[in-house]
Structures are given as C-alpha cells and as structure tokens.
C-alpha cells in the first residue's frame, strides 16, 4: 500500500472504545480490539496476539493526520506567528489580528477569512464560466480537427482512386494507339511482302522461260542445214526493279510521340477552370473531374474550413488570376437560378454578406442582371436566352466582360481597379458545366 493511499478512520477504530487503536490485538474470530479494552471487558488477563498489520496501518494513518495538522498550522502570519483570520480588502492579503492594529493597515477594511473566501468564490464564478465556454470552444475545434483528419484521409483515398482511374484510361488510350499503329505497320508489311512475292514469281517464270530459250538456241546453233537460217527472232525486255517496295518507316516513326499526343488530346478534354472542392458549399456536388457542379437539397458533411462557403450555394475555381487576360465558357442550359463571374481572394465565405467582392451576371427565374460591388444588380434586357456564358477577365485593364458565344451577343462589362487575385465564381441552384477548350495542337493546325 502506498504511503499516500487513503486510510479510512472507521477501519482503524476500536469497536469497544470507539477510538483509534492504541495497542490492537487480534481475536481468534479475526476481529481486532484494543488490548486494554479487551482486559476491561473480559476482566481477564488473556493477552491476544499483536495485530502487526493493523498497527502499521494505524501508524500510517497517524502520520497522515500529523502532516495535515502541520500543513494547517503552517498557515500563520509570517510576522506575528498568529493564525490568519482576517482578509485586508485594500492589500488583498490574509492577515492576523495583530496586523489589523498595525500602522501598515491603518484605516484598512477587513473581512473574516471565511467571508473573503465566499466573496472570492462568487467572483470566480463568471471567470469559471468564461473558462468553461473557452473549454467548449477548444473541444469544438478539437472535434473539427478530428473530422478534418478523417476528411483528409477520405480526400486522399478518393483522389488516389481517381488518379489510378485516369492513368488506367490513359494507358488504355496508349495501348489502343499502339495496337492501331502496329496493325498499320503489319498491314503495310503484308502489302509490300505480297508485292515482292508476286514479283519474285514473275521473275522465276521469266528466268525459266529465258533458260529454256537459251537451251533451244544452243541446240539450233549446232545445226548445219538451212533450217538455222529460219530461226525466229525472239526478244525479252529487261526486268525493272519495283519502286515503292520498301515500308514507309518514316510514316510510322516520324513524330510518333507527338502524333500519339495529338490522338490523346482528341480523346482527353482540357478545362480552363478547375473547381476547388474545398470552397464548395455543402449542398453542391462536383463531378470527379471537377468541371461540373450541381445543386442538391441534401447537405453533405465536409469540414467547415475557413475557405468554404456556408450560406449560399457557391464554389470558386482553384486558380486565381492577377494579370493578363483569361476567359472561360460555362454551359448554363435552361437553368433559371445561377450566377457566374469572378470573386476576390479575400471575399467573405461565411454568412450572407458575400457580394462585396463579386462581379457577375445572374439569372433569377426569367430575369437577367449584372452585379458588382460598385453598382449592385442591373437588369440585362435579352431577346434570346443564352445557353452558354463566356467570362473574359482583363485584369490589367480592370475589366470583366460577359457574352453569349453561341449567339455572339454581348451581355455586360463591369469595371474596377483590381488589387488582388480574382477567382472564377459560381453560384448554382442548377447544373453548370465548364466547357472544355480546343487543344493547342488543333490551334497549331488552324494557324
């Protein structure tokens, strides 16, 4: 048993005199009593065996009591060695009755220590409440960190699966292209080989015919009669070498990697804007390639990180722009509740007041409008409903333009002196899709 283990007083109390054992003795039945009590009680000289274990526990208990008494007795005035019974309100210190009458505490107010303790406890209550509220905040942040840690694992797992899927698709494209090119090579090989085989057979026939003619001519040369003079003239044209008989290796190997890359670009889309899932409001669902967004009434449970919108169904592009010109098209279809444009990096993400750093065009039901921090919402009269919206950002010129690229119709131009990065902005209660652009190789061929 540890020296600091709690000992109960009732375990060390004699049941006869109800005091702490003085000289405990062990009875045959297993109980313990003071030897003196036993002698008085039985009026006999029977001397029970000593209970050494109980003696040790009694001694330990006595030591603990002495230490506690010593600790209490140490709370004395350091000047007068008197108990600190009063509390000086001016000095905010416990004092003894002698200190109370000293010059140092002249005209000071005092309270009994017990009352001062109660007052301090009352004063501590609001502080305790503040600490409890702070503890609650710390626990909430801890829970957020735990949820974020789980979300990070989920993100990594999901991203890894998509990476593997993408590379599997790319490898399949390469395998298909490899098989196609090898097949073309084999086909040409077969054609050229067949051509040569036919030429070889022709040469064999000509050689056989020529050999027979030579033999016949030699026999005729041995004749001495007039029949030799009647030999028919026989001619055979010289054989020609075949042109284009070799495989066009240049056609199969020339710029091979570049042409394979071209083929891959025909099958792989490039998106000028990639959506940032860490900014998406919980009701928005993004596609695996992060180029489409759709609204759902069912809220997901992502971490409430500082970058995420939490009030309106908004999401930002993953890359911000702070120079030059940038453009992208959004397929809005027949959706009737959307906004597209740009937003500042420092724009608010939490709560309803998020429009101060947004420049956009919007559709609400059948009404179109433009909006900016400088002018608010301005109606846009349109004859045709746009199915696509083109956003053109001229950051250096401080201009954002919106148009309908299908009908070649200008919608609105908003101006401002930009001082920070702007991110593609999307508000969606419908289905929005970022339109992929033409590949660079297609642009090269069109030049």
From TrEMBL:
Xref: SUPFAM superfamilies: B-box zinc-binding domain (SSF57845), Concanavalin A-like lectins/glucanases (SSF49899), RING/U-box (SSF57850)
Locate the B30.2/SPRY domain: which residues?
253-444
Q: Name one GO molecular function term.
A: zinc ion binding
Ranges in a coiled coil: 149-220
Originating organism = Denticeps clupeoides (denticle herring)
Record-given protein name? Zinc-binding protein A33-like
Listed CDD domains: SPRY_PRY_TRIM35
Q: Where is the B box-type domain?
A: 72-113
- Membrane-crossing ranges are none
Q: Which UniProt keywords apply?
A: Coiled coil, Metal-binding, Zinc, Zinc-finger
**InterPro entries the UniProt entry points to:** B30.2/SPRY, B30.2/SPRY_sf, Butyrophylin_SPRY, ConA-like_dom_sf, PRY, SPRY_dom, TRIM/RBCC, Znf-RING_euk
């Amino acid at each position: 048993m540890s020296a600091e283990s709690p000992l109960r007083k009732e375990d060390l109390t004699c049941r006869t005199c109800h005091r702490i054992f003085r000289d405990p003795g062990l009875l045959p039945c297993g109980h313990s009593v003071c030897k003196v009590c036993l002698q008085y009680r039985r009026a006999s000289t029977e001397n029970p065996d000593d209970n050494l274990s109980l003696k040790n526990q009694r001694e330990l208990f006595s030591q603990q009591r002495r230490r506690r008494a010593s600790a209490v007795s140490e709370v004395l005035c350091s000047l007068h060695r008197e108990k600190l019974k009063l509390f000086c309100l001016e000095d905010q210190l416990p004092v003894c009755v002698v200190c109370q009458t000293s010059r140092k505490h002249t005209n000071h107010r005092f309270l009994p220590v017990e009352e001062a303790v109660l007052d301090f406890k009352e004063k501590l209550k609001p502080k305790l409440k503040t600490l409890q509220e702070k503890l609650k905040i710390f626990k909430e942040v801890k829970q957020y960190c735990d949820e974020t840690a789980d979300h990070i694992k989920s993100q990594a797992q999901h991203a890894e699966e998509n990476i593997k899927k993408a590379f599997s698709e790319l490898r399949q494209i390469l395998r298909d292209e490899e098989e196609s090119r090898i097949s073309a090579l084999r086909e040409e090989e077969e054609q050229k080989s067949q051509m040569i085989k036919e030429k070889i057979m022709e040469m064999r026939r000509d050689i056989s015919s020529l050999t027979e003619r030579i033999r016949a001519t030699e026999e005729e040369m041995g004749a001495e009669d007039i029949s030799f003079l009647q030999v028919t003239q026989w001619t055979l044209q010289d054989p020609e070498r075949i042109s284009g008989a070799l495989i066009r290796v240049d056609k199969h190997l020339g710029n091979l990697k570049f042409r394979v890359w071209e083929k891959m670009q025909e099958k792989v889309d490039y998106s000028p804007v990639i959506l940032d899932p860490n900014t998406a409001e919980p009701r928005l669902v993004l596609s695996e390639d992060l180029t489409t967004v759709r609204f759902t009434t069912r809220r997901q449970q992502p971490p409430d990180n500082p970058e995420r919108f939490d009030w309106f169904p908004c999401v930002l592009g993953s890359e911000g722009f702070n120079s030059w010109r940038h453009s992208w098209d959004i397929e809005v279809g027949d959706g009737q509740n959307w906004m597209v444009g740009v937003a500042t990096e420092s724009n608010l993400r939490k709560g309803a007041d998020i429009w101060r750093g947004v420049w956009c065009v919007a559709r609400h039901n059948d009404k179109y409008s433009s909006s900016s921090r400088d002018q608010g919402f301005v109606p846009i009269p349109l004859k045709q409903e746009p199915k696509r919206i083109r956003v053109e950002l001229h950051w250096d010129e401080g201009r954002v333009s919106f148009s309908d690229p299908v009908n070649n119709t200008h919608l609105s131009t908003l101006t401002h002196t930009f001082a920070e990065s702007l991110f593609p902005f999307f508000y969606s209660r419908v289905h929005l899709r970022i339109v992929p652009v033409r590949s660079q190789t297609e642009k090269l061929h069109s030049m």
